[in-house]
Structure formats: structure tokens, C-alpha cells
Amino acid sequence: MNNLQNTTSSASVSTTTQRERAVVVGSGFGGGVTALRLAQAGVSTLVLERGLRWPTGPNAATFCRYATMDNRSAWLSDHSVIAGVDKTWTPFTGVLEAVEGNGMTAMCGAAVGGGSLMYHGMTLQPIKANFAASMPMAACLYDELNQWAYPTVARMLGISTIPDDILATDPYKSSRLFLDVAPEAGLTPFRVPLPIDWRFVQGELDGQYEPTYLTSDIAFGVNNGGKHSIDVTYLAAAEATGLIRVAPLHVVRDIALDSNKCWVLSVDRIDTGGTVQEKKTIIANAVFLNAGSPGTTRLLVKSRAKGLVPNLPNAIGTKWGNNGDRIYAWIGMNGDAGTQQGGPACVGGRDPQSPIPFTVIHAGSPIQAEGIKMMTVVGFGINDAAGTWAYDATKDDAVLTWPATGDTALQELIADRMQAIAVAGGGQMIDTDATAPSTWHALGGVPMGDAVDLYGRVLGHSGLYVLDGARIPGSTGACNPSMTIAALAEHSMATIVRNDIGRVF
Ligand SMILES: Cc1cc2nc3c(=O)[nH]c(=O)nc-3n(C[C@H](O)[C@H](O)[C@H](O)COP(=O)(O)OP(=O)(O)OC[C@H]3O[C@@H](n4cnc5c(N)ncnc54)[C@H](O)[C@@H]3O)c2cc1C
Questions:
Q1: How much is the pTM?
Q2: b/e for 57-88, b at 16 or more Cβ within 10 A?
């Protein structure tokens, strides 16, 4: 199903036009950072977000649970977007979109706060050499990122690793098992920094709240709260200034440049079933595209193909990658993985000697099959950005093509290491992505150096910016992407606030 297209509208929908100084499209990591820094610079800004707000708190039932998955899990789809789950329902503006391409499905967030609502929260900073290997064109930025941008993100998201006393509890048996086996498989184990208030996990352990963390039932969001997602950190701070307006259920369809050199957004305000309620034309001096790698790339590839913005760089639609993301099921291991597997994914391992850098993480599984011991182990690393996007006029959309050999060299290394874990800990590893590759880590499509400069300015187009994962060509230095997306956005916004505000917009 083509999720951007599958809305309906009646002939009677009203049309409106409004003017804005600055518009941010998308409210995830890139969008949240952008909104806050524009607000602090005194710029009145409209944030357009296609998804809903999802308020959480102790014992909330905001998000659906894995075992009772419903339409809140999927973005305007009549079926589950989770591989292997055979459920259908009435489409709803749920939290996860599966963007189906040729050879790869990209899973991405659709909510106020973007991917931060349903992500595990693994917040890793790459070392300098790995950052440079993924993004040679941006290697010169690393020292500044390291000095202040990464630490700013860490502070804003309140990251910390799992405390000893929580790791020692029964639900975290599988994490301890991974830590025990990792060294035998040649991995240096570590604890993963997470944007979690561990008092909420303790509250579950004390029986105050229904388990969410303790069962890793967090694939569609954390009901109990305690997660420092973008909606309750960056966006909340931005809205508190009074200068930022967040508009949920607003889908940007097209972006054009008018004869006055202003940016013109065609926007549908939809209801939760996807039906168009209002068609808006929003004219802005500056537009910050933060619709995520697939979202931003699709908008710009469309604009170029339809001639809505003249002379967009040829590199738009290139250098897309999956961060080498691969999910394995480890079954039948010797050790005791427990009957519950606590989350979020709090332990991992690395081999500093590997010829291609990669990281392996144990993520708890929300479901346990009767009589089968199972743990989820995820690998990701540095790979080529071999994916491309092309416009398909029949769909009025851009479609991803990922070559089957796009990440072969990395996947062979990850597969070897998964095998080493199984040899050390018993059982076997099953590559769940082998026949139908998918990724949670879509990156690239509007690459830095080729399509945007190091500050996210679209080349040749004053007032048009890309500050999300779309500008990162394919991988983030053998780390999950969110921290690097946010740190780069912090770094770019410091320069944009200093140099572009008052001149460009
Ligand atoms: C299940 C899952 C687990 C993950 N776990 C981790 C993890 O543990 N650690 C980690 O670092 N990363 C993780 N990721 C990846 C991480 O979520 C993304 O890399 C990150 O969210 C991307 O940030 P972004 O700013 O580029 O875009 P996003 O956070 O995806 O935000 C883009 C926003 O734009 C909106 N949008 C898209 N198109 C339009 C449009 N046309 N009009 C209006 N709005 C639009 C979307 O609804 C979305 O809210 C995970 C991803 C998933 C799906």
C-alpha cells in the first residue's frame, strides 16, 4: 500500500492559503532540534507533522501492545506492517509506516516526535574514525560535534545506561546472558545509553505500573512514559517559547518555488482515517525538510521530476542506505533467557578489530513462543549507500531501489559474528531479513556534499534546508542513527541561526 497516497478527499473540502516565515516539515530528531533552535532565535515557526500526538503516563493505554496489535500500530494501512503478523483492520494514522521499495522495506515513524516514539532509544555516538568512514565529506565537523553537539543531545534527551540493580533483576536475564556470551564471540560488551527515566522501570518492578519496559512491549511506544522522546523534550521546550505551533495530521504533498522565490507547500489536513478535511497552500520564506530519510527524499524527488523546483541537484535520490541493519533470532541457546525480556535494548558488543566496523545489540522480544527459547540480536555497521530513489508517475511518488548486493561485505561479517555467538552460547541464529530485507535505520537520499552543504542547505536554493536523516549517506559510523541526526541538526542550526536568520529568512 502506498501510504502517502492512500487518502481520499471529497469535492467539498475547503482550500486555504497562509503565509509563514519558517516551516518545519516533520517533527522527529531533525525537526525537533530545528524547531527549538528557531524558537530560541525568535523565529515564529509552523511545524507540519502528518502523525498524531501520543500522550503517555503511568498505566496509560495510548499505544497498542504487541500481542493485541491493532490499527494504532500502522500508518494508514489496512494490515499490520510487522513482518509475519497477519492482521487486518480499518486504516488509522498509526505510528509506523512501512515504505516498500524494490529489494528493501524502510520502517519509519509517523507521529509528533517522529521515530523517537517507537524507537528503542539506543543513543550511540560514533568514534571519529567511524564517523569519517560513513561521512567522509563531513569528517571535518567531528571535533565540534564531539565538543558540544553530541553532549547537547545527550543532555536534552537525559541519556543513561541501565543501573546495576535493575540489570540484576529477573526480567533482564537475557541481557545478562548476552553480556556473558559476547566476549566468547570476540565482542567487547558495553551498556547502551538510553533516554530513559529508570524510575519508571523500577515502578514496574515494584508493581506500580503494568509492565511495558519489563516485557519489551515498546515496539509501538512506551505506554507508562519515562521515555525522553522528542515530543516531550525538544518539541515541548520549543512550544513552551510560544513561538512554535505544531500541526498534527498535516501531510505535505508537494513543495514548489514561486516567482517571488518563496516556498509553496501543498498540504492536506486529514482525519485519523486519512480522509482529507482541508487543502492548504502554505507559503514560506524558509522550509526545513525533516520528514525523515524516505519522507524528505520522496518530496524532493517528486519536486524535481514534476518541475516544481527548477534545478534541484541531480544527487537528490542517491546515496541511500540501511545502516547495515539486520535482525537475527537466536533460538535454543544454552543459557536461561528468562520468561520475560526487559527493554529497551540495553546491552551490546563491538569488535574494535573488525575490518568493517559494526555493532551488535540484544533487543528484548515482546513475545515468547511456547517451549522455544528465543532472543533478538541486531547487527548494524558501515556500508555503501547503494540505494536510489526514482519518480514513478503512476503513483506520483518516489520509489526506492536497493541492490541485493548493497551490503554484502558487511552482512557476511555480521553473519559470521552471529554464528560465533551461537557457537559460544549454543543454539542457532536465524537471519529474519534474509528473504525480505527491511531496515529501521533509513538514511540518505539527499546527501551532504552532493545535494546539500554541510549545514543542510539545498545547493543552489536559498531558504530550503534538509536537517534530518536524509542528508546522511547510508550509515552513521556503526551506531544507531538518532544521536548523529540530532547532533548534526544542532551543529547546522547554530550556523543557520548565526548566518541565515535575517538574511535568508
Ligand atoms: C521501530 C524502530 C526502532 C528504532 N530504534 C532506534 C534506536 O534504538 N536508536 C536509534 O538511534 N534509532 C532507532 N531507530 C531509527 C530512528 O527512529 C530514526 O533514525 C530517526 O527517527 C530518524 O530521524 P529523522 O529526524 O530523520 O526522522 P523521523 O524521526 O522519522 O521524523 C520524520 C517525521 O516526519 C513526518 N513526515 C514524513 N513525511 C511527511 C509529510 N509528507 N508531511 C508531514 N510529515 C511527514 C513523519 O511522520 C515523522 O514524524 C528506530 C526506528 C524504528 C522504526
A1: 0.97
A2: eeebebbbbbeebbbbbbbbbeebbbeeeeee
